[in-house]
Amino acid sequence: MAMSALRTVVVPPTGGGFPSATVFLLHGLGDSAQGWIDVARMLGRNQALQHVRFVLPTAPTQPVTVNMGMSMTSWFDLYSLTDLEQGEDEAGMLSSVSSVMKLVEQETDGSAPGLNGHRVPMSRIVLAGFSQGGAIAQLLGLTSKERPAGVAALSTWLPLHKKISSLRASQQTYPFFQAHGTADPMVDYEFGRRSFEAVQNDLGFGHQAEWHEYQMPHSACPAEITDLAAWLERVLGL
Q1: Exactly one of 20, 118, 218, 219 is catalytic; which is it?
Q2: In a designed cystine with 195, which of 8, 83, 87, 158 is the match (CB 3.0 to 4.6 A)?
């Protein structure tokens, strides 16, 4: 399904001026950019991240199978939350990847609102997301022709795991941050753990991939955001 331009919220660098780096932060199922704007602002207030711009798109509204076909914001259709072997909405995933990549390209060519021609190279862009958004962030990184600064996957899984190797644009790797709650009732902890092992071993990320876990449900927690901020400092620091 083709999607129109995504509704997007931008949190500019707290230090003022043009950004030297950008973080794309993609929300989860049924949420919106507003659901993560406080996290973006919190990260942006970090002394070492005041040069970073945060871009938060909102997914389109569409029917979702696991929601009994009712419409909600969703990056792609979900057939099951307990068994990925029931299939995945590859067309929907790739459509969202295409839509978000257009926003990324606007960062790199300086045409995005607020940049006024100032360009942020792909090597200074982090792709991050929670749950469904984390799946799209991973696909963005793996299918991008240019190497991103890094990918952060929160409470999520590796999408299209059976064919992801064939979808990769190159064998490039980059810093990879994955976090998951040990009491997650939505995306099982073991889904996250197995996905991380696939990224680390099968996709060859090795020591560039790091795992973090927290005693939390399907959500974010202060310790996780602190760890994410520290990781962002390492990959986007001046």
Answers
A1: 218
A2: 158
Active site residue 96: no
Task: Report the pLDDT value the prediction gives residue 4, as an integer from 0 to 100.
Answer: 45
Look up 161 and say whether it is catalytic.
no
Name the residue range of residue 152's domain: 8-236
Q: What is the pTM of this model?
A: 0.96
Per the domain annotation, does 1 fall within a domain?
Answer: no
Catalytic residue, chosen from 131, 144, 155, 195, is: 131
Q: 69: domain CATH number?
A: 3.40.50.1820
* 131 given a catalytic annotation: yes
Helix 132-143, helix 90-109: angle, nearest 10:
60
pLDDT digits (tens, 9 = 90+) for 52-75: 999 999 999 999 999 999 999 999
> What residues of the chain score a pLDDT lower than 70?
1-5, 84-85
